Amino acid sequence: MIKNILSLLTTLLFLALSLPAQPSLYLPRDFQQAVKTGARTLTGQPGQQYWQNRATYQIDARVKPADKRIEGQAAITYTNNSPDTLRQLNLKLIQNVHLLQARRASYVDPAFYTTGISLSNVRVNGKALKWDNGAVHQSEDPTNAWLPLPEPLLPGKSLQLELEWNYELQTSTLEHREGMVDETALFAAYWYPRIAVYDDISGWDRIPHNVQTEFYGDFNDYDVTIRTPKGCVVWATGELQNDKEVLSPLALERFRQSLKSDTVVHIITKETLASGQAVQPAEELAWRFTAREVTDFAFGASGHFLWDATSLVADSTTGRRVSVQTAYQPESADFPEVAEIARACIGYFSTQMPAIPYPYPTMTIFNGHGQMEYPMMVNDLDMESMDDTKALTAHEIAHTYFPFLTGINESAYAWMDEGWATLLEFFACTELYTLEHPEYAIYPGYYLRGYLGAKGAEVDVPMLTPSHQLLPPAYGLNSYGKPAAAYLALYNLLLEDSFLDCVQEYVERWRGKHPQPYDFFFTISECSGQNLDWFWQSWFMEFHTMDLALVSYRLEEEKLFVTVRNEGGMPLPIPLEVELEDAETRRFTFSPILWEDQDEIELEVPVYGTAKSVALVWKDFRDTDPGDDRLEIK
Known about the structure:
Blueprint: H1 2-18, H2 29-37, E1 54-64, E2 69-79, E3 86-92, E4 117-124, E5 127-128, H3 133-137, E6 144-153, E7 158-168, E8 179-180, E9 186-188, E10 194-195, E11 198-199, E12 203-204, E13 220-229, E14 233-236, E15 239-240, H4 243-246, H5 249-258, E16 265-268, H6 270-274, E17 284-294, E18 299-302, E19 306-315, E20 320-328, H7 338-351, E21 362-367, E22 371-374, E23 377-380, H8 386-398, H9 400-405, H10 418-432, H11 438-441, H12 474-494, H13 496-510, H14 517-528, H15 533-541, E24 548-556, E25 559-566, E26 574-580, E27 585-590, E28 600-605, E29 611-616, E30 630-632
Parallel strand pairs: 1-13, 20-21, 21-23
Antiparallel strand pairs: 1-2, 2-7, 3-6, 3-10, 4-5, 4-7, 8-9, 9-18, 11-12, 13-17, 14-18, 15-17, 16-19, 19-20, 22-23, 24-25, 25-28, 26-27, 26-29, 29-30
């Protein structure tokens, strides 16, 4: 009997030690439900019942730059891997944000307005369905449209959706993400009807697109043919499958050379264009690209852009090379340097931070009017300085990891990707370059420039607040500067090796999947071996600000003790600078972990000599009240 009791106690003790601790964090009901169904866990691992839907897109599109129009047809195979029976599909029709009546969160100029996207010949499994473009355009949210299915789509089953569409390209040049670049060049993004994400948290993603927010997409396969008029070149997500059919012999030779070159190859130059040796001389060219396991597809086209390309080994264990390309206006001042900048950034991200090999075969930086990322594509404008060019290039390429390798819902939680891109940009530009004015170009100066001057509660609203519910300045600060500060504080807490291990574990767990905020929180906590609930609570879930204060000091047997209070509540590193009587200064940084269970601490500062003053000296963070950051020692 005693043995049985001991055995039972041992079993219960084992279970208690092996089961994950219930987090002290607030858990929203949708995440709790996902844990109950086995789709998510309290450790940050995808659950045994985790699922996600996917599709394959076969698209044939015709570009008409002279008419500022794109026409297309698609055959989409959509697979329902969920446990639910689907009776309708949600279609993302982002081009409808250009309708005059669409809801928008930011200013647009009149050139932004169009008549939206129009669908026709909609068929499911060969059966024609009614579609009313007018009703969609006049609906409360024309960027989301419902397509009732003739028969329910059962779990584990697939359907074939076929449709045609056309839309007018907008002509605004005010840093917009897509549209006409000039009279003959264009960048096409959100240019095809896409089936929305259906996930285990929210069901259908019904968040309206309002220009400010970004995107959320399933991991799909694409086979896309883009037909262009004579002389036009296309750059796109994925790999060009028919280079010999579309490129001139000279351009083809240079393009293939670039795929193995460590230096920049000028594929299309001014001379190439002038001599008519850029592309094949057909009246219409069909450019075919394929891409696997990506969340979107974008392309750019022009008959007068220059084209540079180089490559690098992104994964030393396999020798896999990545093609790095730029397509740009002949008069661009900074783009002649961008191919090499992009190559350096991809090398840095692949080997240093986050030290995850760039996962795709290509990356193209296109010279449009945007500052926006897409899988394997970037749409960037010319910047005022090379500092800004380097920072912008690094930032948009960093998005490869967040949200594209990890399929983040940017519409709801922009900090899960923009914050990381901001931090990775900061690391890359600090390590790779000596910027002339880093205080203006990168974090923290650029991304927290509006933080100190704005004192209302809107700048301190918790970052876990859904992004699509925010307006400036809260949206920008919560998406970029504040999360970058949180991740950098985490870096200071865990230190470099542990930080890298945990970030890599997070990406590996959620590679090709859809992580939620709690999947990130729990993964980092488990990987680090620390209960970081207090850290997540303070940084992401409460109204706090960055504000430390020096309260007092005392001298004891030639030792300096400094009392610091966390007035703002955010767990920041403590950067102290002590000035000695001989004018020498000594700097010390104390870990944010000191704020785990207290808001005032006394630090012993190991100075050797007579101290004149002690100060909080902020380089990588900001203090909203610098008036209490210095003490004179008498």
